[in-house]
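Closing statement on the 3,4-dihydroxyphenylalanine sub-project.
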Amino acid sequence: MLDKINALLAEINDLKANSSEEIEALRIKYLSKKGEISALMNDFRNVAAEEKRVIGQKLNELKDKAQSQINTLKETLETSVAADDSLDLTRTAYPYHVGARHPLSIVKKEICDIFGRLGFSIAEGPEIEDDWHVFSSLNFADDHPARDMQDTFFVQHGADLLLRTHTSSVQTRVMEKTQPPVRIICPGRVYRNEAISYRAHCFFHQVEALYVDKNVSFADLEQVLLFFAKEMFGADTKIRLRPSFFPFTEPSAEMDISCNLCGGKGCPFCKHTGWVEILGCGMVDPNVLENCGIDSKIYSGYALGMGIERITNLKYQVKDLRLFSENDVRFLRQFEGAS
Ligand code: DAH
């Protein structure tokens, strides 16, 4: 019996295992109820009385050795798994979806970044506005036909509260409080009472830019527009300005860019003109400066405003405006990975 115990001790001393399954098999082989050590324990009954003390001690030693050897094997296996650097044990057990930015947020950020590089800082204003900031200060006379251009949502009948129809209201808010130089970019949501279709919605988003200082000229505006178009749509982009009318700018213009789908050759998207309209702009009307307490004999400025949805449509060829507000993840997931 002593020989058998010594042989097992030697065997157990040399145990090796590469996986937890192998370790479990060894545990069963030596330590389970039907294992080799239990069998020896059973035989212990037949050992002669004078040998019981020595053999009993040896048997206990064998059992402890087997148990500690199995534990050591387990520990060694765990540390070798942890040392494998393809395995990150601090990771969560389940895939963690961080989500994606909304396409309008991606484009808004890009527009703000481009103007940010030109020294414009971001300004924001309230969405619930009053008549002064949205219309009157911006040179819309009470009976001005231009007021009809925008279908306004009024918050309360008779009260001077309305949902802003454009972000130009932020121009007034900033100029009332700040003397030039003023160089701001104002992103935000605007509301108009429009029937909802693939090309119009009752709310959408705009970015307004305003620069007021001494000696600001139309040439400055044109350079900024060209820089913006090239940064946003690529270095080959060309711009074209067409005369237009806005009550708050004089002169006023609309800017087209060469169609980024056909490269200006003409396609259904640009209605075969080679050009697509992207924003309105002009020199701030002196009346607007005066309305905000800025001396129009000393200062001049330019302003421009664009729809974020329009720019996003051009960049990503989204044909239906309604997709932006339906929160359909099959649409939104297509922008995962965009900056
Ligand atoms: N506020 C105009 C609109 O909602 C857009 C616009 C046009 C803004 C010309 C401007 C500008 O600052 O100069 O249609």
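Residues 166, 168, 208, 246, 249, 280-282, 303-305 surround 3,4-dihydroxyphenylalanine (CB under 6 Å). With this model delivered, the sub-project is considered complete and its resources will be redirected to Aim 3.
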